[in-house]
Structures are given as structure tokens and as C-alpha cells.
Write a structure and sequence with these properties.
235 residues, mainly alpha, Endonuclease Iii, domain 2, Endonuclease III, domain 1
Length: 235
Amino acid sequence: MTLKSPSRTALVRRARRINRELALVYPDAHTELNFTTPLELLVATILSAQSTDRRVNMVTPVLFARYRSAADYAAANREDVEKIIQSTGFFRAKTTSLIGLGQALCDRFGGEVPSRLRDLVTLPGVGRKTANVVLGNAFGVPGITVDTHFARLSRRFGWTTQTDPDKVESEVGALFPRSEWTMLSHRLIWHGRRVCHARRPACGACEVSRLCPSFGIGPTDPEVARALVKGGPFS
């Protein structure tokens, strides 16, 4: 679907209005990964790749009880870790990342999770998306989390035409005050999980439909659309 390009000023105004509307719809938006420390969030986010938050939250209680520090991961038995995280998928690669993560934290950061993006992205299994999740939710440092939901909605809203996550992050970030980046990420992810689905977005039940240039790519009948809405967490 070809979207008409608005002026830069109109684009910024509409984008910020959508963000304000979503803030009213999702006042409690937050990361749906369970954690109590920066290390736990970093590990959970690594496990969430190609998995769901629900699945990750099912395995992390056992993992976190057994491995409480970076040193614990560094010294972990591979087979033990693999057994715990197997259901999250790609468990061998993730195990390699977790053991390497523990070693890197111990070797270079005194066993502590660093609070700078440039340091986080040097760690095994950590890209910008994972780093921004940790920065925004464990350290209060604003960051944009470009997961599949965020990228999809950003394009549907006309905020970007990019598909590369780094370019999406850059273009969308330029539309909003830096202080809004973390909560903007939560709101788009929640809306993508619940309403603006990849295959059949619930356009007729969308609270920001009047502001969306992609309105109509999903069912517009309110009754039909409401049946598509997923109301619970982790959807």
C-alpha cells in the first residue's frame, strides 16, 4: 500500500499525537519479561529472540535461581543450561551466548552489566535491540526497541519505510523527544501484540485508526475487528 508522504511538520505532529493516544490506551505498558536485576533482564532478552515472553518467563525462574551472577554463567555446564532453556528455541546458540556473556562481564566489566550502549553491544548475543531493552528498563536510559511489532507499526503509521532495524530506530527516534523512546517502544509493542497484528490488524477496533494512514488493511467493521483483539498479556 502506497502511503502519501506528509510534510515533516505534519508527520511529527501526527506521530506524537498517536503516541499520546496510545499512552491513554496503555497507561501501564511495560516490558513483559520478568526480571529483578539488569543481569536477569539481559539474559531474558537474549532468550526472547525467536521466542515469546510467555515462554521465556516459564524457564527463567529455574535459570535465575541457579545462575545468580555473571560468574555463575561463566562457569556454567553447557548441558545444564541447554536443558533449562531448550523450550525457548535455538538453545545451543543461546547457551553459547549466555556462557560467553558471563565470561565477558567478568573479564571486562567486573561482573556487572554495563549501562552504556557502546559497551552492551560488545557482549555476546547482544545487539542494539537487546541493549536498548536493558538500558530503558533496567537503567532508565531512553532507548528504542525495534522488534517485529515496533518495526511493523512504524511502517504502517508512515513513520519510516525502512526495514533495517538500525535505520528504523534512527528515523523513528528523530520524530520524538528522547525521553519518550522507552515508553513509545512499550506502547507500540503492546498495540502490535493486541490490535495491529501482522496478518489481520483489527482496524475497526483500533483506538488510533483515525490517525493511521494504513487504516483499512484489516477488517474495518467494528464487530469483526473486535473479535481479533487479543486482550491478555503476551499476545
